[in-house]
Write a structure and sequence with these properties.
337 residues, two-stranded antiparallel sheet, mainly alpha, 2 strands, globular
């Protein structure tokens, strides 16, 4: 009976910590909106708010895969290059086959992403290569392949069919397809991480891989799976990127992997693994999107924009570390009691 009570208290404490992080992000977003609105009358316009949502849609989708990798105790630095390579191949294919349905193109991009993510997973799970080293290498490989496949050329808007370019811009019941897909991905992976056995194992592996092995979890399978899913979502993001911006470029999404890490960390995902939520990730992506948009509207220098983004990331990391230490202290006191 006592163990059950302690377990219930532990779960309640974890939920409180997660909730407090998300509440803090919401309050910061509200404060940021108020401050920027006073500086720029264009910020709260419908068009600008729609642009923010469209801009963070691809980021949120790809960052969902990044979140799972980080939660499992790793990191995927190849997501930007995988996005660019998948987008380039699909863009070139669509430009040669104007009657290719956009949904089929999306599935093609996801399939390419699965291949790229699986290669990362094999390096980490079977090759025992540290995730940061493995994906640092594949980041360069995939980016190089993007230049090789395209010959350094771009796929311009006039080379793409209207049906493909409109795919990201069309709406369903007034909701843009990009935003709708972001919501669908969030719902699917929220359910997966919180209501399936495999999803909970991702957290267990990130918290303590040795203990996970002891209780019978196939750690290598989990590691392979999270990199595969990260690749799948990167491939999906690549197709949506090309459709959104009506072009496929060899240098697309350069540095995008750092934005996905930032969105995850700002959203409360522990860089050490073992914790993180989909709602927190969405809030982190939204905060990052608002910050980038706001700094542009108030005409802050691009150099200062990078510096301020870095400061927000540092604040998020320090806050997460402080909350983790507090959680450990409270848990230790309760065990002694």
């Amino acid at each position: 009976m006592i163990n059950r009570v302690e377990e219930s208290r532990g779960k309640g404490l974890l939920l409180w910590v997660a909730g407090s992080r998300e509440t803090a992000i919401c309050l910061f977003i509200i404060l940021l909106i108020i401050v920027v609105s006073l500086r720029s009358p264009y910020f709260l316009t419908i068009k600008n708010l729609e642009d923010i949502l469209l801009n963070i849609a691809v980021l949120s989708i790809v960052a969902t895969g990044q979140m799972m990798v980080i939660t499992s105790g790793g990191i995927d630095l190849s997501v930007g290059s995988a996005l660019a390579l998948s987008g380039m191949i699909v863009g070139m294919t669509v430009s040669e086959n104007w009657h290719l349905p956009p949904l089929l193109a999306l599935l093609m991009g996801m399939g390419l992403g699965i291949v790229l993510g699986s290669f990362n997973g094999l390096l980490v799970a079977k090759g025992r290569v540290p995730p940061i080293i493995a994906t640092l290498g594949t980041m360069s490989v995939y980016r190089g392949l993007t230049f090789v496949v395209s010959g350094g050329a771009w796929v311009d808007a006039h080379e793409l069919p209207d049906s493909f370019k409109q795919f990201a811009r069309d709406t369903v019941l007034g909701v843009p397809n990009l935003v709708l897909l972001m919501i669908i991905v969030a719902i699917i992976f929220y359910y997966f991480l919180n209501h399936t056995r495999t999803g909970r194992q991702v957290y267990a592996v990130g918290s303590n891989p040795s203990a996970a092995r002891v209780v019978g979890i196939n750690v290598n399978r989990i590691l392979f799976m999270v990199f595969l899913l990260s690749g799948l979502l990167s491939g999906m993001g690549g197709v949506l990127w090309v459709s959104r911006y009506a072009s496929a470029q060899s240098d697309s999404a350069m540095g995008f992997e750092l934005q996905t890490v930032a969105a995850a960390v700002i959203g409360g995902v522990s860089i050490a693994g073992g914790s993180g939520t989909i709602p927190g990730l969405l809030l982190g992506s939204l905060l990052l999107g608002i910050l980038i948009n706001a700094l542009t509207l108030v005409r802050v220098s691009p150099f200062w924009q990078l510096a301020m983004q870095g400061m927000v990331i540092l604040i998020a990391v320090v806050s997460n570390a402080a909350m983790s230490r507090r959680l450990q202290r409270v848990s230790a006191r309760r065990r002694k009691a």
